[in-house]
Q: What sequence folds into this?
């Protein structure tokens, strides 16, 4: 298995773990009670803190992966990116972006359909999570099967 395949798998697993741990931490703190200012504050902080936590965790996991990879294999991470790597990255980004845009449109559709605000926020958060998974799976698939 190549470095890129291993990195994609680690990225996929870390996205699941990060989101799961964060959701397990935040869900019990849900204030309930409709669309009150407390609830809107909760959802706003949920999204902002999830973004910050996710970025920091992905950076730390990426550094940890590179250290463990170098110790176990004795190889450095590839220092260059060829056309194949660029093409795979662009396809992964395209698929990830497409999933997020669909989720965003569904979230706005929920507002138009007079659904509670929590439905919109859940759709946005869920589409961000599925978007992250889609990018990792696409990257892994194309490194495994080719373009």
A:
């Amino acid at each position: 298995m190549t470095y890129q395949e291993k990195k994609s798998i680690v990225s996929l697993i870390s996205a699941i773990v990060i989101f799961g741990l964060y959701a397990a931490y935040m869900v019990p703190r849900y204030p309930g009670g409709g669309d009150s200012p407390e609830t809107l504050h909760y959802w706003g902080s949920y999204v902002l803190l999830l973004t910050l936590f996710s970025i920091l965790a992905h950076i730390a996991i990426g550094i940890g992966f590179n250290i463990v990879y170098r110790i176990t294999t004795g190889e450095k991470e590839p220092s260059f990116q060829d056309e194949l790597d660029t093409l795979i990255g662009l396809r992964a980004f395209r698929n990830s972006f497409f999933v997020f845009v669909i989720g965003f449109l569904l979230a706005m559709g929920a507002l138009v359909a007079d659904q509670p605000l929590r439905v919109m926020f859940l759709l946005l958060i869920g589409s961000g999570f599925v978007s992250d998974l889609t990018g990792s799976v696409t990257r892994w698939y194309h490194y495994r099967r080719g373009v």
